[in-house]
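We were asked to recover a plausible sequence for a given structure. The inputs and outputs are reproduced exactly as logged, with field labels preserved.

PROBLEM: sequence recovery
POSITIONS: 386
GIVEN STRUCTURE:
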């Protein structure tokens, strides 16, 4: 079964919604304008219940079918990124230094299109809960909505998410059961030594030297202590120390990230990292403090729900257009929190030959809107048959 015919008619409107969101990007939880626009659209569609300020600035719309039944959640993210856009498109960001560089504008437009169709047809039994989430880009908005009672307040039985992916042709989907996207942890390492004159290093405890040794040593966690078949990344991305050429700095700060696809590996990396930092700093006569913050968990698709999501995608795109053995990735997604709270699945939809996510020249491909919206509609109708 191909894309829903209604979305061929709605394509200009969905495109207009998407581009309006793109022109007015907002960050993290400060998405009041975006959330207000989403809520206004949902009310205009005749959605039965529109609730705002869930998880601070999240929006939830409830559409009831023709008969009572369970509820399933469909999630789209709303926030943008602090990136200066370089696309030059007529709908480019009107806010310097901010842009929808991850396609959340497209995610909202697809879910809004589905909401409009479902509110018109109601060809299902139960409730479709449309979840518009803030702060996916590092703010754990999914966790905030869950802690605000999202699942219990709306009786959600299962939950589904979707994200566009450049490089996958428009009209195709990709998914896998089990671990799909990585956990994301943040490391902050503060070093304190003895500063002094650069000409007299023997009177100092050099935090730059200690920091450099720590950066090198941390790479051995993955290369020498993790099963080569497993996956992990340890990246130190910031090294701040000193201000001039003739002073050995008293302090230094290293910042980075750890990504894994397995809880046991995650525990191992944290323990090993702490021991390496402490021992290496001590060997250089420097004190070290490690702040290891566990941010997003591993995103794990349930076997049954992933198989169901793949079936729905095949109905929309065709049997040969759905990859059910997509390779896991070490990017992360806070939809993982929702999958910890309820069974469900996360799927990729193709964005074609675009710049990659988080790139200043990225743009969502409007041709993908009908595929994503059709997927949402078919998923509801299949999961909640009338």
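RECOVERED SEQUENCE:
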């Amino acid at each position: 079964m191909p894309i829903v015919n209604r979305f061929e008619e709605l394509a200009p409107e969905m495109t207009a919604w998407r581009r309006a969101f793109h022109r007015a990007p907002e960050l993290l939880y400060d998405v009041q304008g975006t959330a207000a626009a989403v809520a206004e659209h949902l009310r205009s569609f005749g959605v039965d219940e529109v609730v705002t300020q869930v998880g601070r600035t999240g929006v939830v719309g409830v559409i009831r079918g023709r008969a009572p039944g369970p509820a399933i959640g469909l999630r789209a993210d709303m926030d943008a990124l602090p990136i200066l856009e370089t696309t030059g498109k007529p709908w480019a960001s009107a806010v310097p230094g901010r842009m929808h560089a991850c396609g959340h504008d497209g995610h909202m437009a697809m879910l809004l299109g589905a909401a409009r169709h479902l509110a018109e047809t109601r060809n299902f039994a139960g409730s479709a809960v449309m979840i518009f989430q803030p702060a996916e880009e590092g703010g754990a908005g999914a966790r905030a909505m869950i802690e605000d009672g999202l699942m219990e307040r709306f009786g959600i039985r299962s939950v589904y998410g979707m994200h566009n992916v450049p490089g996958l042709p428009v009209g195709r989907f990709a998914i896998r059961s089990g671990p799909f996207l990585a956990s994301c942890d943040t490391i902050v390492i503060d070093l304190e030594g003895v500063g002094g004159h650069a000409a007299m290093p023997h009177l100092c405890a050099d935090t730059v030297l200690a920091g450099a040794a720590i950066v090198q040593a941390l790479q051995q966690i993955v290369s020498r202590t993790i099963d080569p078949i497993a996956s992990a990344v340890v990246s130190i991305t910031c090294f701040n120390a000193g201000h001039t050429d003739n002073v050995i700095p008293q302090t230094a700060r290293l910042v980075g990230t750890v990504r894994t696809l397995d809880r046991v590996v995650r525990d191992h990396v944290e323990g090993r990292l702490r021991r390496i930092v402490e021992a290496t700093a001590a060997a250089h006569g420097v004190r070290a403090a490690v702040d290891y913050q566990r941010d997003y968990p591993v995103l794990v698709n349930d076997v049954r729900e992933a198989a169901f999501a793949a079936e729905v995608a095949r109905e929309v795109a065709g049997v040969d257009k759905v990859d059910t053995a997509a390779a896991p990735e070490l990017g992360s997604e806070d939809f993982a929190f929702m999958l910890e709270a309820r069974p469900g699945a996360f799927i990729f939809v193709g964005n074609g030959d675009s710049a990659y996510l988080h790139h200043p020249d990225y743009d969502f491909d409007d041709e993908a809107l009908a595929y994503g919206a059709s997927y949402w509609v078919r998923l509801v109708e299949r999961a909640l048959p009338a």
